[in-house]
Amino acid sequence: MNEPLLIQILTLFPEMFEGPFNHSILKRAQEQRLIEFRFVNFRDFAYDKHRMVDDTPYGGGSGMVLKPEPIYRALQAAKAVKPDAKVILLTPQGEVFKQERARQLAAYRHLILICGHYEGFDERIRAWVDLELSIGDYVLTGGELAAMIVSDAVARLVPGVLGSENSAVHDSFTENLLDYPQYTRPFEFNGMKVPEILLSGHHAQIEAWRRKQALKRTAERRPDLFQKLVLTEEDQRLLKEE
Ligand code: 4F9
Fold first, then answer.
1. Range of the domain at 223
2. Is residue 168 part of a domain?
3. In which region does residue 219 sit, left (phi positive, over 0), alpha (psi from -120 to 50) or beta (all else)?
4. Is residue 103 part of a domain?
5. Which atom number of ligand 1 is nearest to the Cα of residue 133?
6. Structurally, how many domains does the chain consist of?
7. DSSP secondary structure letters along 96-149
8. Considering the chain, what percentage of its residues have pLDDT values greater than 90?
């Protein structure tokens, strides 16, 4: 039995994670001991009598800034649990999180995610992290939701979490490609029918149709992804059809 992937999350609000992490696939993955989540509240590492985690900014200005000491101590404690942690800070200033990075992180045995909160954090915190990640160009109320998204995307790539059918899902053939359209029963609903090809039983033709739909959809909706694709001759032929 493999050791689970340990994801430790440094946050002032561990309760925020209870919903997303305790349902469905992430719940099962923890029960199966494929992944383990631990929460470190860095307020527990603030040693003054008011357990202060933030303070006013040097140089003036509005808002509060997270102090370095509680986060530093919490990080030392988290690192002591298991060697070779990859330490990640969630911030809009980080590398934009993509599937390729999720795949790389799923190969680690220990991740530490640091969630900033309030109006910002002391710049010196940056020196202690291996990687800064952004989940997109918007500002959240804190890093917690970003940490949940990163955790979810990484966890589903850990072998066993999605079951055996998972392995083929992220091969080079489907990378950077949007999904093809899918249908289930009934055959007709509100006058809308399922494409006949899907009922034909011709496996090869169905695969070709799906590939074509995925390529066309990617070209139309995500030209940025489409230009990264390495098209086969068959792909080019499919794209030229009608
Ligand atoms: C983190 C936004 C990662 C996007 C952290 C406020 C954040 C964020 N991606 N916003 N704190």
1. 188-240
2. no
3. alpha
4. yes
5. 3
6. 2
7. EP-HHHHHHHTT-SEEEEEE-BTT-B-GGGGGG-SEEEESSSS--SBSHHHHHH
8. 91
List the alpha helices (DSSP H) in the chain: 18-21, 24-31, 68-81, 99-105, 144-155, 203-221, 223-226, 233-240
Respond yes or no: is residue 20 known to be catalytic: no
Last-in-domain residue among 108, 138, 155 = 155
**Out of 123, 171, 188, 224, which one is annotated catalytic?**
171
Residues 215 and 127 occupy one common structural domain: no
Considering the candidates 38, 57, 92, 152, report the single residue annotated as catalytic: 92
Q: Is the CB of 230 under 6 A from ligand 1?
A: no
Q: Over the stretch 94-137, which tens digit does the pLDDT of each residue have?
A: 999 999 999 999 999 999 999 998 689 999 999 999 999 999 99
Same domain assignment for residues 23 and 120: yes
Looking at 3, 119, 207, 220, which residue is catalytic?
Answer: 119
Average pLDDT (164-174) is 64
139 CB near ligand 1 (under 6 Å): yes
Work out the pLDDT band at 168, boundaries 50, 70, 90. Answer: very low
Ligand 1 near 12 CB (within 6 A): no
Q: Which of 155, 177, 200 is the last residue of a domain?
A: 155
Is residue 119 annotated as part of the catalytic site, yes or no?
yes
Which residues make Cβ contacts (< 8 Å) with residue 213, sequence separation at least 6? 180, 181
Indicate whether 183 belongs to any domain: no
